[in-house]
Amino acid sequence: MKNINRVIFASGSGTSRSPMAAAIFHATEHKRPIVCEARGLVVQFPEPLNQKAEAILISNGIELKDYSSKQLTDADFSDTTLVITMEETQRQKILSEYEKGTEENTRLLNELVGDELEVMDPYGGSVQTYGLCYEVLKASIEKLMRVLEA
């Protein structure tokens, strides 16, 4: 996947998992420059990062300043962009609703990195639930870096 120079994490409202994933991606060592962004699949209006997600990121030494959710659009897709979802239902939504979304450029994070389970949605859960989500994302993104270098 050496031709990929942009990664977009896409999930739900774009206020928890996708910005956490993008922040972890930025905080993880890269062998080559890759732009990373977060998008939501249902963004009625821009919203800030979920407070529990923000607390977990800060407690792990990651600060995401001035974040505001953005809707995924067809303009986000290109030959060198990989859109990564947290759940198969999100991937299927992109494949059915976005003209430029394809099986090749829209992938499920756990399948891409060889994990068994999808990244669970922490929404409505405790801070500990968000912490568990962070740990799963961190481990998956470390594996993702190896996949992107292959």
Describe the secondary-structure layout.
Blueprint: E1 6-10, H1 17-27, E2 35-39, H2 51-59, E3 81-85, H3 88-97, E4 106-108, H4 109-113, H5 127-149
Parallel strand pairs: 1-2, 1-3, 3-4
Helix pairs in contact: 1-5, 2-5
Key attributes of the depicted protein:
Rossmann fold, single chain, alpha/beta, 4 strands, 150 residues
The CATH topology assignment is Rossmann fold
How far apart are the first and last residues' alpha carbons, in Å?
6 Å
The global form is: globular
Low-confidence stretches: none
CA gyration radius, whole angstroms = 14 Å
Can you summarize the main beta sheet? 4 strands, parallel
- Within the largest sheet, what's the order of strands? 2-1-3-4
Q: Structural class from helices and strands?
A: alpha/beta
Mean pLDDT: 96
- Report the strand count: 4
CATH level 4 superfamily? Response regulator
- What is the CATH class designation? Alpha Beta
> How many domains in all?
1
CATH architecture: 3-Layer(aba) Sandwich
The quaternary structure here is single chain
